[in-house]
Amino acid sequence: MDKQERMLSLLQQAQAILDAAKDRNLTDEEHTQATKLMGEAMQVRDEVKTDKRDANLKAALGQLLSGMQQQDTRTQPQPQRAKGTLGQRFLGDATWQAWYKQVAPTGQFSTGRLGMSPAVMVKDFGLWGRKELITGLDDTSAGAFVVAEQTGIYEPIGRYLTVLRDLINVRQTGSDTVEFVRQTAQVTQAAPVAEANVKYPSGATGEITGEKPQGAMTFERVAEIVKTIAVYVGATKRALADAAQIRGLIDQELREDLVDALEDQLFNGNGVGENFLGLANQPGTLTQAFNVDILTTTRQALTTLLVTGRQVPTAWVFSPTDWETVDLLQDLQGRYYWGGPLAQGMPRLWGAPVVQSFHVAAGSAWLANWRKAVLWDREQATITATDSHDDWFIRNMVAILAEMRAAFGLIRPSAFVNAELA
């Protein structure tokens, strides 16, 4: 395997790791492996450039030696050198003159795009019998003077949109634990009561005591623990000092990663260890089983929320793939139910707005009164930097840490219905 093939193989292996994790974050092991493969590929690339440079030098040296040997030969007649400087012979070339007349008929170049001028072969310049093509493709020729334009453009990979924080209640807390009281049984004993007809009832037939029914209700105290979400990256002090932009990019990436991790936890956290207890694993939420088709099922989910949950929905949350399925539904005449590609405005399903989240598992959707979910911010996202990590102080390295603390809970689990779409 030559070096070009090895470099391609390394890059393909790194791309395979990224493709395998396209729907999730890379693990530490995957990140390390992909970084190592890219580093090896760049090293091979530098070796290829070095080989090319050495080959060009050897070729040039061989041509010089060949020309000097021809010059020292006294027994053979020497060819005459062409007259004129390199620039004069370049400008006087017939091919270049024809192109010049085409792009500058008045004798002056226009301000628009001119395109590439033809290559000019300059014969017998410098050493007798040698031909050189002036080109911008080689670092040893005119390409050595070509400087790459620094655009200042930085294009990140991009992240999934987050929607849940905009739907639920967000409050502040100053404690490591938040508690609230949830009603578990309400008063349901009210009934019509006839007027009393005896002062001291004896139990005789026809007596009406007029006694009113007594109501009852019960409560429970619920506690939610504040959890921590954090991530850090390492950077050298020199990198932070020499590239002013990099610190801002690191801060932005870390903050966005916290937001992405929080959204995933709020939907899918299993409550084990330091994981949040996410919506998908909360006890007491309602379920709507699939029935006939998606439209029938989602309409029955609305009834379930209104009747069983006794709540008015504020929004649906679908995965993008499931909402695509709903969006493409057509009637028997092939007409889109939701207006097709030209439909405008906020999408709605059975009267409730629809939003999409990449963190909702495909195959189900949530209908809820989302105000019955609360996120308590203990510490909003903060960024700190320190060299007091392991031996980083003596290595001039800095750990940049992003961290947030919050608690999450459903104050009314029955305000959430999970509709099975298949």
Describe this structure in words.
Among the domains are: 119-147, no CATH class; 225-329 and 346-420, 2-Layer Sandwich (Major capsid protein gp5 fold). The model is unreliable at 125-131 (pLDDT under 50). The strands form four sheets. A six-stranded mixed β-sheet has the order 7-14-11-8-10-9. A four-stranded mixed β-sheet has the order 3-12-13-6. Strands 1-2 form a two-stranded antiparallel ribbon. 32% of the residues lie in helices and 21% in strands. The longest helix is centred in the first third of the chain and has 45 residues, at 28-72. α1 (3-20) packs antiparallel against α2. By secondary structure, it is of the alpha+beta class. The chain is built from nine helices and 14 strands. A hairpin with a 7-residue loop joins β1 (121-123) and β2 (131-133). The chain is elongated, with a radius of gyration of 38 Å.
